[in-house]
Amino acid sequence: MKKIKLTKTELKRQKDSLKRYKRYLPILNIKKQQLQREIEGVRIELEKTTFEFNKLREEIIPWICLLGEEVGLSDLIILKKIETGVENIAGVDIPVFVKAHIDIKRYDLFIYPLWVDKAVDIISKMISLQAEESVFMERLRRLEQELNITSQRVNLFEKVKIPEAKMAIRQISIFLGDQQAAAVGWARIAKNKIQGAI
Predict the structure, then answer these.
(1) Could you tell me what percentage of the chain is helix, strand and coil, using 3-state DSSP and rounding each to the nearest 5?
(2) Among 88, 92, 121, 197, which residue's beta carbon has the most beta carbons within 10 A?
(3) How far apart are CA 76 and CA 157, in angstroms?
(4) Cβ contact 68:111 at 8 Å
């Protein structure tokens, strides 16, 4: 703790600081709780997306050996872009998944094997789910980062700033009280000397 001045001005400044800290602390606690709820919600959504992805992967397993045939699936399905929006949660801009723009090139049904239709459908869904998962991961990263900062601020206020301000107020009040008592004592001595001289 830095050295404090033992003056009435400093006492007022410390009292104002303490009042400000006590006013901000509940706001920070609410923000922390809101971030924790949002993180939990994102984790649940991420689990759902992962479950859907794994379910699609299970659908592919019976005919996965067919994907070994060289038919150029990677040329037929192209992820053009991931469209996202922005949502403000507790003062933080967080990305929101809107849509994965997947370009499926036209192909001749007479040239390609029958299973390609099903493969294109499932793989495009899997690409979309992976895109959604990446947005959820970024959402989670930003929310956890903001939660970390907010938690540090809450701890700073609760464990450092408020106790420091209380201690400073106490020290200044004691010092000023002692000064006032000493002044009263000196005033009595001076009054007695004046009265003794008369």
Answers:
(1) 75, 15, 10
(2) 92
(3) 57
(4) no
Residue 42 CB neighbours (<10 A) = 22
Beta-strand pair 77-89/92-104: antiparallel
Question: How high is the pLDDT of residue 69?
Answer: 61
Max CA separation in the chain (angstroms): 128
User: What are the tokens at 4?
Assistant: 């404090």
Domain 8-190, CATH: 1.10.287.3240
pTM score:
0.78
The per-residue pLDDT for range 111-164, each reduced to its tens digit, is: 777 777 888 888 899 999 999 999 999 999 999 999 999 999 999 999 999 999
Between 192 and 168, whose confidence is greater? 168
Calpha distance 22→159 (Å, rounded): 12
What average pLDDT does the chain have? Answer: 87
Where along the chain do its domains lie? 8-190
Do 21 and 162 touch, CB atoms closer than 8 A? Answer: yes
Are 118 and 71 within 8 A, CB to CB?
Answer: no
Q: What is the DSSP letter of 6?
A: -
